[in-house]
Amino acid sequence: MVRVPLEEERSFVLRRMDVQAIRQVCLTTATGVTGLRSLQFQNHLYGCFIVMEDIAQGTVELSGTVLRTPTFSFDLEARFDEIGLHYGFIMDTQLRWGGPEEYRRCWVEAFQATGREKKIDTVDGMEDVLIELVSTHIPAESSFFSHALHTGVLPHEWIDKALALLSPATATATATAATAASLSPSPTDPEDTSTVWNHANIEKTSLKRRLRLTRRSRPIPKKHLGLTRRH
User: Fold this and answer.
1) pTM of the model
2) What is the C-alpha separation between 230 and 179, in angstroms, rounded?
3) Mean of per-residue pLDDT scores for the chain
């Protein structure tokens, strides 16, 4: 039997505990959240994924709790609520995350552990656990995270869903205009169609597409797709 060195064994136990701690706090935080609050949580969680990957791959430097690049610095603890605004799949100030302190603490500890180890395999393992959790506990009709996971970009229909949460009045006006247009068709310039008008409003509400791509490429476990469990 091969004996694992004590320091390596301790490191493994620490990683395992971190994953389970974050899984539990994410589960507690996600339970029962709906609507805009759910979108805030999912956007912030996606941002945490990107931050962990950047730290593990050395594309940013982590000093204490501060991320640094040659042109940018970001305090992950002091500005924890803004992670989704900078690294999420939607950048809108309404998506600032104000969650429980335990959630913040677990993530900051995970970022620091990632900075010490810089092992992308460890990050992948943690992400797999959390992706499964989200796929199981976030209702399919609210699964923004799952639809943005592989590209960092929401499909058009999910942009519309997000717009309906961020700007209900605009979404209602868009739906009304689209209905009226379908009932009373008339020749119009293509640029005046409801679709173009709708996406103009998306731009106004800062639903900007992310240009960067997440490194995530593994499919979400199919057995969890379509589940709508709530607890």
Assistant:
1) 0.71
2) 33
3) 76
- Order across the sheet with 61-63: list the strands: 61-63, 66-69, 72-75
| Rounded Cα–Cα distance for residues 157 and 142 (Å) | 12
CA-angle at 190, arms to 185 and 191, nearest 5°: 120
- Partners of 74 in the beta sheet? 67
Structure-block tokens of residue 26: 């994410």
Q: How far apart are CA 188 and CA 169, in angstroms?
A: 24
Residue type, 25: V
DSSP secondary-structure letter at 151? T
Contact between 179 and 152 (Cβ < 8 Å): no
Q: Where are the beta strands (DSSP E) in 6-94?
A: 61-63, 66-69, 72-75
Length of the chain: 231
Domain spans of the chain, in order of start: 7-153+212-224, 168-203
Confidence of residue 53 (pLDDT cuts 50, 70, 90): very high
CB 54 within 8 A of CB 60: yes
Q: Are 88 and 47 in contact (CB under 8 A)?
A: yes
Least Cα distance to 194 among 214, 204, 179 occurs for: 179
CA max distance for the chain: 79
pLDDT in the model for residue 114? 93
Of 172, 171, 179, the residue nearest 201 (C-alpha) = 171
Angle (deg, nearest 10), helices 6-30 and 35-56: 160
